[in-house]
Design brief:
Length: about 180
């Protein structure tokens, strides 16, 4: 959870910068960032051994990834690919570099069925226009996927492959205006 706060801050900065450039940010993206900050604040006030900590973390991650995909897609189409890549790197740093050692009460996030060391992401596939294209991309990047009871798709594999997959998906979403 500790890194979600840093990622939300980076996304807020990106949103402000895009707004300053005259690009229109969808209201849903601003609402997603507000919800992510609220969930992060709630999680920090929860006892470390709380059963709901995992659920809050999953919800926060899903909301942040949705906002990330929308903002980076807007940045790429409105400003350029290099600009979006720079912000993607800043987000990766925010997710990874802020926590150097385990905080007191830290519980590692474990997803059953994902081998240790693999990177993963959850996607909401009902908003994607062509699911068959998504299946082809998963094969292209050597990623494994599994549907989850809440309707989301869990995608996992090597970190580089997941990052490349998300970048390609972001480009498709930007082109199709999904």
């Amino acid at each position: 959870m500790n890194n979600f706060s840093a990622a939300a801050k980076v996304l807020d900065e990106l949103m402000l910068e895009l707004t300053g450039m005259g690009l229109t940010i969808p209201v849903s993206v601003a609402d997603d960032l507000k919800a992510a900050r609220s969930l992060t604040n709630i999680s920090q006030r929860q006892p470390a051994d709380s059963d709901s900590e995992y659920d809050i973390g999953m919800k926060t991650m899903a909301i942040l990834q949705n906002a990330e995909m929308n903002l980076l897609s807007l940045a790429e189409t409105g400003v350029g690919a290099d600009y979006a890549d720079t912000w993607q790197k800043a987000l990766n740093d925010a997710y990874q570099n802020k926590v150097t050692k385990a905080a007191p009460g830290y519980k590692p996030t474990f997803i059953p069925g994902i081998p240790k060391g693999e990177h993963w992401v959850r996607l909401q596939t009902d908003e994607l226009a062509d699911v068959s294209e998504l299946d082809a991309m998963l094969g292209e990047y050597a990623l494994t996927s599994a549907g989850q009871p809440d309707g989301w798709l869990l995608v996992h594999g090597k970190k580089e492959d997941v990052s490349s997959f998300l970048k390609a998906l972001r480009q498709i979403i930007g082109k199709n205006g999904v």
